[in-house]
Amino acid sequence: MGQANQYSTALLFEIHDSRFANLLEECLKESEHLTAPEGDTTFGFWMQTLADLHLLDMELKGLAETYKIDPLTRTVEFTGDETRIQYRIAHLEKVRGKKTLYAELVDAYGDTNAYAFHNLYPYKGKFYPRVVRTLINAFNLDKDALLLDPFNGSGTTTHEASLMGIQSVGVDITPIGVMLARLKDELLFLSEDDLAFSLDDLTDILRAIENRR
Ligand SMILES: C[S@@+](CC[C@H](N)C(=O)[O-])C[C@H]1O[C@@H](n2cnc3c(N)ncnc32)[C@H](O)[C@@H]1O
Fold first, then answer.
1. Is the minimum distance from the CB of 174 to ligand 1 under 6 angstroms?
2. Can you give the pTM of this predicted structure?
3. Has residue 56 been placed in a domain?
């Protein structure tokens, strides 16, 4: 009886397994179609809302000469400077088969808001870097531009501008915002020599922190 039970249990698992395997295979086929768009210029599966599509549209309006977005296949056709678009755009994963710089940054830091010191401090009300980049692209600013954020907070806007090679001026009424905005940019341009502290330097730094200077 015990043996019969064992067999039937094994058989049941086998049936379940094969059904499960079939189901899984179907799901994978379906999700492959959904997650891997065909085409060389594509946007990611994370883009789910009409707002995301609108932001992509704004960027392409600024950066491309002509373009056509296909939201169903999540692909884009465009004419224009593909290298510049690949370096700058925030709402595409790939441009003509090459991963965008933005997708690389986000993948490297595992977070769309955390790359390159953006998350140094959880300043209340700070902008999303991706949206800032979208606006910079929508206005097609380049290295000859000078960007002003008169309410710069902890400097998401000025920091993103620096990352894109655009000069900027930030103003804020809050001293901690000004300090953070400066610090983020300074960290970007730090050279290895700046980190060559001696033991005495480190002791001085720790004393300064201890004395809240
Ligand atoms: C939403 S936050 C700005 C976010 C910022 N633009 C960014 O890129 O992350 C608004 C900022 O406006 C600043 N602010 C409010 N009134 C101000 C004023 N009269 N002059 C300068 N800054 C002001 C606040 O201190 C706050 O940091």
1. yes
2. 0.79
3. yes
Is the dihedral angle over the CA atoms 139, 143, 149, 150 positive or is it negative? negative
Residue 159's nearest CA partner among 114, 210, 196 is: 114
Q: 19: number of CA atoms within 13 Å, CB side?
A: 6
The pick from 117, 130, 172 for probing ligand 1's pocket by mutation, whose C-beta has the most ligand atoms within 8 angstroms, reads 172
In terms of domains, do 46 and 95 share one? yes
- Is 130 a domain residue? no
Any ligand 1 atom below 6 A from CB of 127 = yes
| Partners of residue 98 on adjacent β-strands | 95
pLDDT in tens, the chain (213 residues): 444 455 555 555 555 667 778 888 887 777 765 667 778 999 987 787 899 999 999 999 999 999 999 988 899 999 999 999 999 999 999 999 999 999 999 999 888 888 989 988 888 889 999 999 999 999 999 999 999 999 999 999 999 999 999 999 999 999 999 999 999 989 888 888 888 889 999 999 889 888 876
Task: Indicate whether 194 belongs to any domain.
Answer: yes
User: Structural domain tally of the chain?
Assistant: 2
